[in-house]
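Fold this complex.
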Amino acid sequence: LAKTTQPISMDSYEGQEVNITCSHNNIATNDYITWYQQFPSQGPRFIIQGYKTKVTNEVASLFIPADRKSSTLSLPRVSLSDTAVYYCLVGDVMNTGFQKLVFGTGTRLLVSP
Amino acid sequence: NAGVTQTPKFQVLKTGQSMTLQCAQDMNHNSMYWYRQDPGMGLRLIYYSASEGTTDKGEVPNGYNVSRLNKREFSLRLESAAPSQTSVYFCASSDPGQGGSGANVLTFGAGSRLTVL
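Structure:
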């Protein structure tokens, strides 16, 4: 399984754009990159997933360079409610459709007024 | 649409007692997982079930057993609880991502907070 490395914590202010980078140097050809968000006392929830280049949804954007050894989660104009822990995962889907998913320590984002 | 339901939400045990955490999903997902999360830490995979009828060890399986009762239900059992098992336990289920390709997308339950005295 590809190991991921993220900053332990980040601080931001409301209205700013936040970029969280994840390093995954040994990512395999079939691996996808997935980001989750976790609020205190809740289970993580899916934010975005991608394989290469750029993916955007209503919540965030995910930038993946050509070598795929890192990825950046971009949160536009954060608000106080974006204060959470963000996890980056990489892994592939086996022939059975199963993926063994291992979480890292995540990045704790604190958004201040 | 309940998603993933875990019971109980809270439990206090004495050292040596046993208990079972229950998990059920109504999304017809093939794969199910049990994670634990200690204070201020990330999630660690205890056991998983790739499909009905199969289970396998994750990163921290010692002290736990699991049963994939059917496609919907995946239980986690502590045979002899220890204080080191004090944690929040999360059950999750998954199916392949968008359009059936890509990585699995996990849906988590609300968690079960276990304290072992």
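The mean pLDDT of chain A is 89.
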